[in-house]
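G., before I forget:
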Amino acid sequence: MTTSEENYLKVIYHLSNLSPKGVNTNAIAGMLDTKASSVTDMLKKLSDKELVNYQKYQGVFLTEKGKLSAKMIVRNHRLWEVFLVEKLGFAWDEVHEVAEELEHIRSEKLINQLDKFLNFPSFDPHGDPIPNAKGEMPTIAKQLLSEIEIGSTITCVGVKDTSVDFLQYLNKQQISLGTNITVLEKEAFDGTIKIEINHAVLVISDKIANNLFVK
Amino acid sequence: MTTSEENYLKVIYHLSNLSPKGVNTNAIAGMLDTKASSVTDMLKKLSDKELVNYQKYQGVFLTEKGKLSAKMIVRNHRLWEVFLVEKLGFAWDEVHEVAEELEHIRSEKLINQLDKFLNFPSFDPHGDPIPNAKGEMPTIAKQLLSEIEIGSTITCVGVKDTSVDFLQYLNKQQISLGTNITVLEKEAFDGTIKIEINHAVLVISDKIANNLFVK
DNA sequence: TAATATTTTTAGCTTTGTCTAAAAAATAAA
DNA sequence: TTTATTTTTTAGACAAAGCTAAAAATATTA
Ligand SMILES: [Mn+2]
Ligand SMILES: [Mn+2]
Ligand SMILES: [Mn+2]
Ligand SMILES: [Mn+2]
């Protein structure tokens, strides 16, 4: 499988979770920063290889084979992210780009030994679950901060948006995985939330609250 | 720079040491398992980028810029080989293929942090020197086992041939970097050498003796 | 339901890196 | 120093992955 094919598979996998009735050509193009016509070409190729079920104009689905391949790429990506943070001292906002390259290195032994070296981690630096060698991964009951009731104290366990901008905002506010958060007030008008973290009070927008996973 | 360009540069770099009066098109083709016509095309491209000095029919030389680029790829390759052996438990005959892929990951921070994580190693698992971030690397006075006089006891410090076949032969004979070797006899007729290693006597061919570096 | 807008696909072109076959240059042999 | 051989380059073609512009299908709106 080529790097390009792997990138398409991974994007289809991520989009499948959001739109379970077939992934759109345009959605894929948007994620890969390419054109719809290029996506159509690739879908035919992936279909020939039986990695996706594709019918003209009807959206695309991963086959079981395609889903497993996608999970293995996600596994690689997230294990490398753990390596970069835990072993090489990268910050959580610096790892994604490099992991995008490392995830395509083809070696079963490499990834399984890396997994072992890292002590079989269950989650990556952004709180996302890491599939094991069989493609199984933990499902954790997590909620968005925006859904939490006033007065509750919860813990940050992940981010929905993993963009550098968002992660650096969180750095600035000293919010990281494991940070405890108490919801003090919610503004009905615009969804703004007042929270307490690290013994300080902070007002965050609904956009922030909609991208922080807590438990 | 593309992966393909990097592979050409690296091969030209390695061949330059052997043929300092210009590297031949066919030699490059042989190393990369490609055709001479493809090499010619690439040489023009590398020349346009001022990575090599190339004149039709006259062989090719690396420019200073090209030499530094090549050294950085060699640096990546050898650091990853150290990582695979030291941290992930690979054997020295298992690392080359994976390192061929890892060496092309583009990230200054990645490679410099890896270097630090590995404690700034000077040599890779095959005894080859690792260039530092500036492209400098140690030169060590080493000889081929075939050049050693009878009666001398020396230490294995590297291999000239890094093929899987040769490395596995050495595994079988329990020869690795650091192994002490005493030269007992040399056969004038065919260059066969009788040596003592690990308190055992072993007869090796001239081909073996010509591919083992000792000091 | 008919007209309009959006999405998706097709057709045809481009770039990168490869190939084969033929031509040209350099080397070696006679 | 011709002739033959080997090496290298050129010419033309191909597959992968992308693009633009136009056509076709689907979805939306009036
Ligand atoms: Mn990532
Ligand atoms: Mn991640
Ligand atoms: Mn190697
Ligand atoms: Mn090596």
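The mean pLDDT of chain A is 97. The longest helix of chain A spans residues 64-86.

More on Monday.
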